[in-house]
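This section describes the prediction task in plain terms. A model, or a person checking by hand, is given the sequence of a single protein chain and must write out its three-dimensional structure as a string of tokens. No templates, partner chains or ligands are provided. The sample shown here is typical of the held-out split.
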Amino acid sequence: MKIPVLLLGFLPNALLHRIVFCELPGFPLTPGTHFLDLFDEANLDKAQNFFLSCNTPQLSPVAELVIKLSGLRPTILSFQGFCREKEYLITAFMDSDALLELFHEQNSLDKESSENIRRALNLQMEGTGTPDEISYLEEMSKVNNELISTQRELSKKNVELARLNELKNRFVGMAAHDLRNPLSAISSFSRFLLDDLKEDSDPTQAEFLQIIHDTGNYMLKMVEDLLDYTHMESGKLKLERVETDVSQILRDTVRLHQNLAEKRGMQILLESCPDQCMAMLDVVKFKQVLSNLIGNAIKYSPENTTVFVSAVCDGTNLIMTVRDQGYGIDEKEQELIFEPFKKATSATKTIAQSVGLGLSITKNIVTAHNGTILVASKPGEGTTFIVRIPLRT
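The expected answer:
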């Protein structure tokens, strides 16, 4: 087994409790230092999410983080940890396989198995105990060792899967980023050409331009969703909260979607809205939540129906509701729709295109605001989304 670079014990408040082992020269942290002091600003969100994932007796997923401490050059280390007796044991390796080996040797034997193995060894050394008893305990020891080996292999596979997932996120993020600019140009220029068409223009030409414009818009929305999703999945969602008048955002967003609704022969009705409701929100992300919910209500509802939007402030929470008269969602699918790339069966009844990331992104944003999102729906009776976000967090 290779020697770990760091093995540290932290309290639940992320303060360093003890340095179990350290082979990193010039390591400057001392007991009482915060865990996040190991990292630069670019790694703070990911490091914080990793620390939270260590709050179980099981090994956390491996996180590759860059440490940047005074007097030390930036170094990529593989971090993994777990919680034992109210202490977070966190280690960092250059080699993540060695990291797994260390923790499995420390933590994979439960108390009962360890006691049985110890008893078997004592019986053998003392020459006491019946042959059947010794044989039984030896067999238990063998089975336990096999189980440890299996767990170790599974953990190694999980590490590899985590690495592949990170590689996938980077690739998707880079590809989506590179596609965004040309798709924006296609959408903008096709809109310009459509607006510039004369009344006596060739109808086929107008039809083709409209197809180019609509397809470009769809692909641009898909790319934007992929960028948002990979950003959130990587633990990089960071809110810029400011005190905001929710009422004004609500009115502006409803007004923004009126044109889209009218094109489908629909209307949006703002049923209730407080005169003024101040909350600590990330304005851009909150608008994204509203736009996703209202946009979905328009896309997945029949023509000549109404989308109802309302909001109330109860002094503690903002409670916002978006209700449509659409096709509804089966009860078995109501949790699935918040998962990435999942869509309700009723979505197939419309020609609306979607990659299935909007509601997953919406839920992530609401959760980041310490809020909740619920859905109530029955097939054929429409769907209601209820968002609850604390005014102060």
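For orientation: Confidence is low (pLDDT under 50) at residues 106-111.
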